[in-house]
Structures are given as structure tokens and as C-alpha cells.
Amino acid sequence: MDIRERMKNGKLYFCTDESVAREQLQCLDKLYDFNQTRPSEMEKRQKLLKELLAEVGENCYVEPPLHANWAKNTHFGSNVYANFNLTLVDDTDIYVGDSVMFGPNVTLATAGHPIDPDLRRKVAQFNLPVRIGNNVWIGAGAVVLPGVTIGDDSVIGAGSIVTKDIPAGVVAVGNPCRVLRPINDRDREYYFRELKIDLR
């Protein structure tokens, strides 16, 4: 089986293929260009983002610096917002739905390494896709691990380590991240603790 197939289907492989390293370097050069754009160069920044990622929907904004293993394996829906230091360990696909918000210093990681020390010494790796649903908010410093799916409308609390799937419509926090509660009617009345929603 070809190494690129193994990278996509969750099989173990060894990170020693020189052609893969050369291909990755081209992606990283373009990522460097994106991160060097000035705040006033919004058009250039958007053009580079569309060249970097596999898909970019309408009205997406990524605040540099952006970090990625490849970038070309990441798929963004529309209206995605990413604050500083989004890290995409996208050795296989990362799927991000519409209207997703990432706080600063969020990591989405598809890559893992075996526990066996002999395999790790040989630089063995496996990759499992990450899927983020629509209208998800992932708080600052959260880490989403390989193979995780987060359902629509959910909120992941700051600093959480998401090791397992999170259903739709919940607030989930912690290390490991667990469902704290469903999103409910109170959330439609209060936006933070005792602060009432008042848009008049």
C-alpha cells in the first residue's frame, strides 16, 4: 500500500518518505507567506488561504499566525473564524462546518503515534480524521485529538482536551472533555452567568 494511502486510511506508516517531505515543504512555504501578510493585505491573505486549504467557504477569516502540517488536508465551510495560533495537524482530513469559531491557541490533531517505544523510535505514525459540525465554538487553548467528531451547535470549553466524540447541542469541558450539560432555554436568556441578553 502506498504511503499516501496509509496516511489517509488510519494505517501505521513511517515518516521517512523523502517525496512526502518535499511535498510538505511546498505547503509550509506557502503557509509562511500567509503568516507574513500585513493586516492591511486582506485580499492577499484571503487568496493565500484559498490556495492553502482544500476548501474554503464564503466569509472565512483566519488570524495569523496559522500553523499546519499541510493545510491542504483541511476543509472549511462558510463563516469560519479562527483566532491567533490555530494549529492544524492535518496529516489527514480535518472537516470544519459552517459558522465555526476557534478561540486562540486551538489545536486540531489528526496524527498520533503508537505507544510501543520501538515503533516510535522508527517514527511510526497513524492519522484519523477530525470532524467539526456547524455552529461549533471551540474555546481558547482546547485540543481536539485524532478521530474525534464534534456535533452541531456544541461549545467546547477553554482548555479542554477532546479525546472522544461530543454530541450536538451540548456544552462540554475538561480534561478529558465531558458533556457538562445540554444547551437549554436559559442560554437563550443569559449570555454569561447572570448577564441577560438585551439587544435593544
Protein structure class: alpha/beta
Q: For the record, give the distance between the C-alpha atoms at the N and C termini, rounded to a whole number.
A: 61 Å
Overall, the morphology is globular
List how many beta strands DSSP finds.
21
| Rounded average pLDDT | 97
Uncertain parts: none
What is the CA-based Rg, rounded? 18 Å
Explain this structure.
By secondary structure, the protein is α/β, with parallel strands linked by helices. It is built from four helices and 21 strands. The longest helix is centred in the first third of the chain and has 18 residues, at 18-35. Helices cover 20% and strands 28% of the residues. The chain has helices at 3-8, 18-35, 42-52, 117-121, and strands at residues 13-14, 61-62, 66-68, 74-76, 81-82, 86-89, 94-96, 101-102, 107-109, 111-112, 124-127, 130-132, 137-138, 143-144, 149-150, 155-156, 161-162, 170-173, 178-182, 190-192, 195-196. Helix 2 runs antiparallel to helix 3 (42-52). The strands form five sheets. A seven-stranded mixed sheet has the order 2-5-8-13-16-18-19, with no helix packed on it. Strands 3-6-9-14-17 form a five-stranded parallel sheet. The protein has a four-stranded parallel sheet with strand order 4-7-12-15, with no helix packed on it.
List keywords for this structure.
4 helices; single chain; alpha/beta; seven-stranded mixed sheet; about 200 residues; five-stranded parallel sheet
